[in-house]
Amino acid sequence: MRLKRIEILGFKSFGEKTVFEINDGTTAIVGPNGCGKSNVVDAIRWVLGEQSPSKLRGSNMQDIIFNGTTSLKPLGMAEVSITIEDTENKLPLDYIDIRITRRLFRTGESQYLINKKQCRLKDIQELFMDTGMSNDSYAIMAQGKIDQLLTSKPEDRRVFFEEAA
Amino acid sequence: MRLKRIEILGFKSFGEKTVFEINDGTTAIVGPNGCGKSNVVDAIRWVLGEQSPSKLRGSNMQDIIFNGTTSLKPLGMAEVSITIEDTENKLPLDYIDIRITRRLFRTGESQYLINKKQCRLKDIQELFMDTGMSNDSYAIMAQGKIDQLLTSKPEDRRVFFEEAA
Amino acid sequence: AKDQFAENFEKIRQNFREIFTLLFGGGKADISLIDENDILESGIEIMAKPPGKKNQTISLLSGGEKALSSIALLFSIFKLKPSFFSVLDELDAPLDESNILRFLDLLKSFTDKTQFLIITHSKTTLKIADFIFGITMQTPGLSTTVSVNLQKKERKEKKKSADKK
Amino acid sequence: AKDQFAENFEKIRQNFREIFTLLFGGGKADISLIDENDILESGIEIMAKPPGKKNQTISLLSGGEKALSSIALLFSIFKLKPSFFSVLDELDAPLDESNILRFLDLLKSFTDKTQFLIITHSKTTLKIADFIFGITMQTPGLSTTVSVNLQKKERKEKKKSADKK
Ligand SMILES: Nc1ncnc2c1ncn2[C@@H]1O[C@H](COP(=O)(O)OP(=O)(O)OP(=O)(O)O)[C@@H](O)[C@H]1O
Ligand SMILES: Nc1ncnc2c1ncn2[C@@H]1O[C@H](COP(=O)(O)OP(=O)(O)OP(=O)(O)O)[C@@H](O)[C@H]1O
Ligand SMILES: [Mg+2]
Ligand SMILES: [Mg+2]
User: Fold this and answer.
1) CA separation (Å) from B88 to B1, B24, B81?
2) CA A117/CA A106 separation, integer angstroms
3) H or E element: which one contains A107?
4) pLDDT of amino acid D165
5) Which of A63, A150, C162, D73 might form a disulfide with A58, Cβ 3.0–4.6 angstroms?
6) Which helix (H) or strand (E) holds B37?
7) Residue in A39, A40, A64, A80 to alter for ligand 1 test, most ligand atoms within 8 A of Cβ
8) Does the pLDDT of residue B165 top 80, yes or no?
9) Over 80: is that where the pLDDT of B16 sits?
10) Is B76 a residue whose pLDDT tops 60?
């Protein structure tokens, strides 16, 4: 099972469609401060089903829709798609390539799709449950958050362990 | 008015007497992780009168006394001295060089000295009041703390402003 | 569930002892349940002692030492339950050069099971990447990406043929 | 006291608008009292808009942008009330190279009034130092310092005489 592609349009600073073809091995993402690197991490969290705006550095979910720039208009929708190649059939679906899409409109309406068929958010969240991948998986480590493992109270650390153990 | 010298013995990882002769201009402190750079910052805070162990990353004040290594014994006392050259007579003392010393013994006993004469902690804390320098001056910016200005609640930021304004 | 947690916790604990010592080139670390009689609710205690130093509260550790200990703990959980992909956002930021190299060695030992997406500002980290995405804002406020793969691959091919001679 | 605070707040505000735009090479920022009628108690609101981007909650800013905005605010307070010395512990850690250079330019404009002690891992920051202390632990757990001053001074002398020719 591997991550194959990430497609972002209208999510945070990605005002134009951006496609990341992901290869095997280790991929590095680089660029100056504020260029959008952590926004890619947020996009991955979001498409996997993140429902808490503060985990995406926002105060409400609308914050993640491209708000425009001094020279570009805002967009009316945010869309992120993640494609997983599942040759070992670890996911409970009959496809080799599984493409998950999440959309949020400024109207507040949301859409969730698996291989272009509409589904519920719950279906996306449950899809990866057995693989250990989820929007708040310990495998997605946000900027500046690694310290919390050590500095948080013993009871809070527990939450982190419970997800793995 | 300028900082002239910092002397550290028995404070945190400085198990042997260490003297920093400070020159005019900008001084950089470098070294690998864990070698003692931030401990110098803690030493400066402490000698200026810091009373909160958590501001020095400890849980009680005894934590700042050199605890030994796998090959060295712990020390019984922590001592930090800071020397200020006051040619413009900005401080209410008749000396040009003003050397402030703070000691803490494992017994819990504390000593405070200005130019080798014993005084109270209060005398040290008040000495710098008009110059804007104090143990919790905004001019001493601890590692990782700069973000708090922006991320803290509006009421907490107030505390920071009140010290300057 | 209680037995499962206790069993997994013990495995993570064993991993942590090994990975910490590996990352720090020595020293000792451990995790424990504060209340052994309350496995399902107990908070978790962490002890971390870098090489040559004495056991003290983890709050006294340096910024880099805390980060490296947290990385050890994170990878101890990975070892128990590797995820098919993982996103790490600027984990190397507080580390000095030699600790970055140790972190990267640890990372490499996990790449057979996990696709890593690493966000970094470090040239050292960049060297171990198989593929690189650069993100820029040619139009201010608008993120776009440039894949830096071909150069990387070419350089690798050239190095391979040069090494053969 | 109320008038004094209001007056100083206004000066810090003006400084912040200028220094932010200087540090970011554009953009706009502001601070304001949440409750203008309660000058002595009101919390403080911060607005920060990097160049080309639209005004949004500061939580959405990147790690580096937050750090740079905090630095702008800190120095806005310095400008009102410069301290005779200041200690900055790894302020440059989240900044990319070009932002470090801008931060250092800002810093230099304050060195006539303030002696800076800067802790850093960055070679870029090291270049602007007049004096350097290296801290090491030749004996594990024991901090010692090496002053790197002579080389630095020699290099400066050589450069001065070379520039004269
Ligand atoms: N809805 C949105 N519309 C447009 N821009 C947005 C939106 N949400 C966030 N941004 C912008 O995205 C930028 C932050 O990007 P990001 O956090 O990905 O930067 P980064 O590359 O990780 O930088 P750093 O190296 O400093 O961590 C901010 O400048 C923010 O204003
Ligand atoms: N009382 C003490 N006795 C001996 N060692 C101590 C004492 N208190 C703290 N230390 C040690 O000092 C070290 C931390 O030093 P410090 O925070 O100054 O590192 P640093 O140089 O700032 O590193 P970094 O670059 O990672 O921030 C820790 O390893 C800690 O164990
Ligand atoms: Mg970031
Ligand atoms: Mg430090």
Assistant:
1) 7, 16, 21
2) 22
3) none
4) 46
5) A63
6) helix B37-47
7) A39
8) no
9) yes
10) yes
Strand partners, D131: B27
Which residue's CA is the nearest one to ligand 1's atom 28?
D61
> What integer is the mean pLDDT of B105-114?
97
Q: Can you state the angle between helices C63-80 and C97-108, rounded to 10 degrees?
A: 0
For CA atoms D59, D65, D71, D73, the dihedral sign is negative
Give SS3 for B140.
Answer: strand
Q: Which residue of C has its CA nearest to A24?
A: C115
Ligand 2 pocket, residue C56 CB under 6 Å: yes
B41–D129 C-beta distance less than 8 A = no
The residue behind tokens 């003290």 is C56
D139 Cβ under 8 Å from any chain C Cβ: yes
Closest C-alpha residue for ligand 2 atom 31: C61
Report the length, in residues, of chain C: 165
Q: Which residues of chain D have pLDDT under 70?
A: 149-165
Q: Report whether residue A92 contacts ligand 1, using a CB cutoff of 6 Å.
A: no
Alpha carbon of residue D94 to chain centroid: 13
CA distance B152 to D44: 10
CB D21 within 8 A of CB D28: yes
D80 at the B interface (CB within 8 A)? Answer: yes
Tokens of D163: 């520039």
In which region does residue A132 sit, left (phi positive, over 0), alpha (psi from -120 to 50) or beta (all else)? Answer: left
Between CA B75 and CA B10 the distance in angstroms is 6
Interatomic CA distance for residues A124 and A44, integer angstroms: 13
Distance from CA of D56 to the nearest CA of C (A): 12
- Say if the Cβ atoms of C99 and B63 lie within 8 Å: no
Chain C CA closest to residue D97: C121
Contact residues for C128 (Cβ-Cβ < 8 A; gap 6+): A26, C104, C107, C108
Q: What is the pLDDT of residues D63-75, one digit of tens each?
A: 999 999 999 999 9
Residue-wise pLDDT for A55-102, tens only, equals 999 999 999 999 999 999 999 999 999 999 998 888 888 889 999 999
Alpha-helix residue ranges (DSSP H) falling in chain D: 2-24, 63-80, 97-108, 123-127, 149-164
Rounded distance between C-alpha atoms, residue B34 and residue C69, angstroms: 12
Establish whether residue C98 lines the binding site of ligand 2, counting it when its CB lies within 6 angstroms of any ligand atom. no
| Angstroms from C107 CA to nearest CA on chain D | 22
**Cβ neighbour number for residue D14 with a 10 Å cutoff:** 15
Q: Are B35 and D143 in contact (CB under 8 A)?
A: yes
Q: Ligand 1, closest atom to CA A40?
A: 18
Find the A13 Cα to ligand 1 centroid distance in Å. 6
If you search the block for the tokens 């949020």, which residue do you land on? A104
C83: nearest CB among A26, A28, A137: A137
Query: DSSP states of B82-133 as a string?
Result: EEEE-TT--SSSS-SEEEEEEEEETTS-EEEEETTEEE-HHHHHHHTGGGT-
Tokens found for residue C110: 């996990």
Alpha carbon of B145 to ligand 4 centroid (Å):
11
CA distance D113 to chain C (A): 30
Closest-approaching ligand to the CA atom of A12 = 1
A35 vs B130: which has the higher pLDDT: A35
Q: What residues have a C-beta under 5 A from ligand 4, the ion?
A: B 38, 143; C 62-63
